[in-house]
Design brief:
Mean pLDDT of chain B: 94
Order of helices and strands of chain A: HEEHEEHHEEEEH
Radius of gyration of chain B: 13 Å
Shape of chain B: globular
CATH class of chain A: Alpha Beta
Strand order of the largest sheet of chain B: 2-1-3-4-5
CATH superfamily of chain A: CheC-like
Number of helices of chain A: 5
Mean pLDDT of chain A: 78
Number of helices of chain B: 5
Oligomer: heterodimer
Strand content of chain B: 15-25%
CATH superfamily of chain B: Response regulator
Order of helices and strands of chain B: EHEHEHEHEH
Structural class of chain B: alpha/beta
Shape of chain A: globular
Largest sheet of chain A: 8 strands, antiparallel
Number of strands of chain B: 5
Number of domains of chain B: 1
Low-confidence stretches of chain B: none
Amino acid sequence: MTSSAGNVLSELQIDAFKEIINIAFGDAAASLSEVIELHATLNVPEIKILHSKELREFINKAFGAGEDLHIVEQHYTSKFKGIAYLVFSRNSGKLFISLLEEYRDMPANMSINLLEKETLTEVGNIIIGACISKIAELLLDVVSYLPPRYIDGKYLYEDMPGNFFDGEGYAVILKTIFQFEKADITGFLFLLINMDSIGKIKEAADKFIAKYE
Amino acid sequence: MIKKILIVDDSIVARMGIKKFISSDASYEIREASDGLKGFEEFKRFSPDLTFLDLTMPVMSGIQMLEEMKKVDNDALAIVITADTQPKTIEKVKELGALTLLRKPPKKEDVLNALSKAKEIKESRVKK
C-alpha cells in the first residue's frame, strides 16, 4: 500500500477486500474452466489504495511499456465507478483461439489479428464479468457494464475516460496474477475503483466483516 | 472426539468466520496460522484432530500443505475452504484425502455439517 493510504483503511478492511477479490477470482476461474479446459493457478491478491494524484504514475508504469500486452478493458458502475483490466502476455491470443471451440471453425478469410482480438475480448468478458458480479453479490450491490474493449499494447493514463477522476478521490486497485496450466499463459486482473467517498468502501468492507465477527 | 482444531488461512476475516461458526457448536482448543508453511509447522506441534485450510495462500499453498500433512499422518482430517472451485482443484483435493471442500464464503450450516462428518469419522476410528 502507498504511504498516503496508511490511514485510509484498517488492516481488517484491507483483509476483507483481499478475501473478496480472492473469492471473486476463484469464481471467474471456475466460469472460464466451464468454457475451456484450462486450469488456472491462482495467487494471493494484492490491494493498493492510491490518491487520484498518484494514479497517473501507477497506470503509466503498469501499462505504459506494454507493447507486448493484450489488454481488455471493461467499465462498470455500481455503488462505485470502476474499470477492470485483464492483461495477457502477447502469446496468449493464439493459445486461447486453439482452446475455444467456437473459434475453431471461423471463416478462413478472417484475419488472425481480428480472431485474437475477438477471442481475448470474450475471455476478458467471462473473467471480468464473473469477478465483478461476485464482488457486487458479496457487497450486496448491483452492477451494470459497458461492453468490453480490446486494447492492443500500450495504455496510458491519458487513455482513461476524462471523467473517471474528477475530484480528490481515491482509487482502490485490486490485482491478482494467474497462470494457466499447460498453456504458458500468464496474466493479471486489475480492478480500479473510483472512491469519491472513502466512506463507501469502508462501509462495504465493514458489512462484509460483520458477517464473520 | 474432536477437541483440537487448526485453522489455516491467510485472511484474518476468513479465520474469524470459521471460529465464529464452530464456536457456536462447542468449545474447542483452536490454533491459527496465516500461510501453508506456518500451518504445517503448527500441525506438527499441535497435532490437531481437525484442520480447516484454505488453498490460495502465500509461502506454501494449501495443496502443498495437505500433501505434507498426509505424509506425517495419512489419517489427518482436513476440511478445505477455498475460492478455487475449478474441477481440477476439486479432483486434487479429493485425491489428497480431504474430508470435503467448501466454497468460499462458506455457509455456517455447511461448516457445521462438515464438522459433524469429521466427528463421526473420528469416533468410528476410536471404536475400532
